[in-house]
Amino acid sequence: MDRKTKIYIIGFVILLIGFLYLESEKKQPINWFPSYTAKHKIPYGTYVLKNQLNSLFPSTEVKTVDIPPYIYLKDSTRIGTYFFVDDALNFGDAEFSRLMKFVKRGNDVFISTHGINIDTLNFKTERLISENLDEKLFFKLLNKSFKGKEYSFDRPFVNQVFKKIDTLNSTILGISGYVNDNEKRTEEGVNYVKFNYGKGNFYLHTFPEVFTNYSLLKGTNHQHAANILSYLRDDIPILWDSYYKTGKSKITSPMQYLLSSKHLKWAYYMALIGVLLFIIFDGKRKQRSIPVITPLKNQTLAFTSTIANMYFEKQEHKSIAEHKISYLLEYIRVKLHIPTTKIDETFYEYVASRSGNKKEEIEMLFKLCDEIHLKNEISSEELIKLNKMIEKFKKTIQYGN
After folding, report:
1. Is the full-model pTM beyond 0.85?
2. Biggest alpha carbon–alpha carbon distance for the chain
């Protein structure tokens, strides 16, 4: 590596370190991504709620379920309150059917999400819209033990309420709406219901933000969340769903971990840029040109010709014939896939049918081979005759009659 290249590399490293330092000193913006994941401490994570469930239900076991309900509830002996909280939930028909069987056996399902539209249970939701942007949002539980206390939320969100409820089997637990400057209610709708099904209950709630870290640590909203959860049973386990979450609860690949951190991500990008610059400025070939070496000529044909001439000059016609017969048998084994261990009528028929030669010609060829085997010496005429018959045999296979 020459001096100029070293200067480039050192300069680039100093630039990279300076850039990373400046980025680390910058105030990071708040991440408002609605992950609803128990491991996330961002405003819309559920780290606080998950860790406080044991305080709210001290005698209740809290289990984390990280597989789909369809698989988890395949075991019909499962008991508990299946707890779902997320920005949006979309159950398949088969999966929700298992949830219904789960409730029918005497268990509960708590669902807090926007837009709960469940045709099977006759529930539909719609957005509650205020005509005046200055109106204040309120949430209220209807149970008299809560003394009509109202709570608010100061972040923008989609306020969903139920527009269709199965009134025969449902109990309205909470409402949401808007009040104007004169404390007069302008819009109102149901946002929390209890639906009796079989021996158990569905609890359907349309304001999942109340369970986020931001809401629980803001003012007295934690009391509202605790009041909502007070309807849940404490004699069966709480089954915390960690599968249906908008945010991923764990790192699934090294690249995801690398890109999840802003500093690591920029370090990765800068490294890629550095490699690219190195290739551009230092990627030229520095070695001498490789000389072209002419490959050695194939002398196999010349060698074969020399050996053949040697045999012919010594008048060793018998040896040449034996070699040609051996090559003929090898040719039949490889080309026609016929064994040559036994030369008989069956062999003649197989060779004739697969080679296209007449059976009589095959018999004449191998009778000549037998005669040559029995002789100690043969003449050049016999050798030539054998060669012609073999060549004719092969030619018929290659080109036909």
Report:
1. no
2. 132
